[in-house]
Design goal:
The structure is a single chain. The protein has 146 residues and is an all-alpha fold. It has one domain (2-138). The chain is 63% helix and 0% strand. The chain has 6 helices and no strands.
């Protein structure tokens, strides 16, 4: 029960942060990603400050976590088993970046916008379809699991 409550609090805090920072508004994200607008003065650098603020919290958090035997609300840390760059990772990063650049949403902000912005629904539908296709592809015979 403690794990569920901790996840709920963390998710709510993350969602509130996304809404307050404007990351759930695709026009704000697209204005940040449009570096071609710099010469005209239309580029919006404010999300760089959001990212810097996230790093100011995350870096000390990861440093403290490194010195713990286990997390506060679980029996062990769940870290990636592989640290290598492979084709699946690169392809996933490219698809993520293309999607973010085209519509101004990534999964977290899209879920927070779901209740506020009806235009988020098609993105959520496409995201769910992509997850289903990925799972189906993993189940194909001869597919090697990472």
């Amino acid at each position: 029960m403690r794990q569920i409550l901790a996840a709920l609090v963390a998710g709510l805090l993350f969602g509130i942060g996304l809404v307050v920072s404007g990351m759930s508004r695709p026009e704000k994200v697209l204005a940040f990603l449009d570096i071609g607008a710099i010469p005209q003065g239309a580029w919006d650098p404010s999300l760089a400050f959001v990212m810097a603020g996230a790093l100011l919290v995350a870096i000390p958090g990861f440093a403290l976590a490194r010195h713990r035997a286990q997390p506060a609300f679980d029996s062990r840390f769940h870290l990636p088993s592989s640290t290598s760059l492979d084709g699946k990772l690169v392809l996933g990063a490219v698809l993520f970046g293309i999607g973010w650049g085209l519509v101004g949403y990534c999964p977290g902000p899209a879920l927070t916008a779901l209740l506020l912005v009806p235009q988020a629904w098609p993105f959520i539908g496409a995201m769910i379809a992509g997850m289903i296709l990925f799972r189906l592809g993993e189940r194909q015979p001869g597919h090697a699991k990472p």
